[in-house]
C-alpha cells in the first residue's frame, strides 16, 4: 500500500518524522511541495508524503475512504474501516525511519486531516504521534479523548465551502474541554486549500520535544 508514497527527505540522523496525508481525489504528489518546504525548514526531519491506499471513487487520485453518498451518519463507520490501514502506514514509516510516536508529526489536509485527527481517538491504542497538524479537517464525531502529551494544531480557511470552518472551531472547543493542548488558526479569505499563511503556520508547529 506504500506504492506511490514519496520520501521527500531522509536525513542521516533524523530527529523527527513528518508524515503528510493528502485529500480525497488527490495524491502524494500534491503535497510534495509542502513536504519540500518542511524539509528545507527542518533539515533534521524525515519527511514522507503518504499516498492514499485506494483509487478514488471520484474518478481520479487516491483516497482512504469513499465520499460518494457520505452522510453524517455513515462517515464514522467508513473512517473506522479505513483506520487500520492508516495506522499501519504510520507504523510502517516509523519503522523505516527508526522514529517513534514521541517524535512523529501527522500533517493532514482535508480527508488526510480527518484520518489524522481520528487516529488519535482509539480507546485502547497508543496515540500514533506527538503532534497533529490538521488543515481543513474535522473529527467524524465529537471528541472522545485527549491523549496525554499529544498536541493538536487546527488550521482552517474562513471561506472553506467543502469542510465548514465551524468543524475546526467545534473541534478546538471539544479538545479544550477534554484537556488537550490545542491551537486554532482561522485564515480570512482562504477557501478549501493551503496558502502561504497555512504553510508558515504548519512549519511553525513542527517543533518537536527534542527542541527547546
TrEMBL record:
GO molecular function list: hydrolase activity
Record's keyword annotation contains Manganese: no
Key words of the record: Hydrolase
Domain of life: Bacteria
Pfam families recorded: Abhydrolase_2
InterPro entries for the chain: AB_hydrolase_fold (IPR029058), LYPA1-2/EST-like (IPR050565), PLipase/COase/thioEstase (IPR003140)
Domain (Phospholipase/carboxylesterase/thioesterase): residue spans on this chain: 5-206
Keyword Nucleus among UniProt keywords: no
PANTHER family, A to Z: LYSOPHOSPHOLIPASE-LIKE PROTEIN 1 (PTHR10655:SF17), LYSOPHOSPHOLIPASE-RELATED (PTHR10655)
Family: Belongs to the AB hydrolase superfamily. AB hydrolase 2 family.
Protein name as catalogued: Esterase
UniProt lineage: Bacteria, Pseudomonadati, Pseudomonadota, Betaproteobacteria, Burkholderiales
Encoding gene, per UniProt annotation: ypfH
Amino acid at each position: 500500500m506504500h506504492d506511490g508514497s514519496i520520501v521527500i527527505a531522509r536525513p542521516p540522523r533524523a530527529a523527527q518524522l513528518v508524515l503528510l496525508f493528502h485529500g480525497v481525489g488527490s495524491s502524494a504528489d500534491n503535497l510534495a511541495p509542502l513536504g519540500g518546504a518542511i524539509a528545507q525548514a527542518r533539515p533534521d526531519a524525515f519527511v514522507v508524503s503518504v499516498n492514499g491506499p485506494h483509487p478514488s471513487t471520484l474518478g481520479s487520485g487516491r483516497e482512504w475512504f469513499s465520499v460518494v453518498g457520505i452522510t453524517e451518519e455513515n462517515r464514522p463507520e467508513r473512517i473506522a474501516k479505513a483506520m487500520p490501514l492508516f495506522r499501519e502506514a504510520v507504523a510502517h514509516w516509523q519503522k523505516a525511519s527508526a522514529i517513534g510516536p514521541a517524535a512523529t508529526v501527522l500533517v493532514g489536509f482535508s480527508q488526510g486531516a480527518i484520518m489524522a485527527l481520528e487516529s488519535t481517538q482509539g480507546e485502547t491504542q497508543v496515540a500514533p504521534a506527538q503532534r497533529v497538524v490538521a488543515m481543513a479537517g474535522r473529527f467524524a464525531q465529537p471528541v472522545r479523548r485527549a491523549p496525554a502529551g499529544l498536541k493538536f494544531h487546527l488550521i482552517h480557511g474562513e471561506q472553506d465551502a467543502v469542510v465548514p470552518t465551524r468543524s475546526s472551531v467545534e473541534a478546538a472547543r471539544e479538545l479544550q474541554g477534554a484537556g488537550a493542548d490545542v491551537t486554532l488558526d482561522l485564515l480570512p479569505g482562504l477557501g478549501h486549500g493551503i496558502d502561504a499563511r497555512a504553510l508558515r503556520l504548519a512549519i511553525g508547529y513542527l517543533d518537536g520535544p527534542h527542541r527547546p
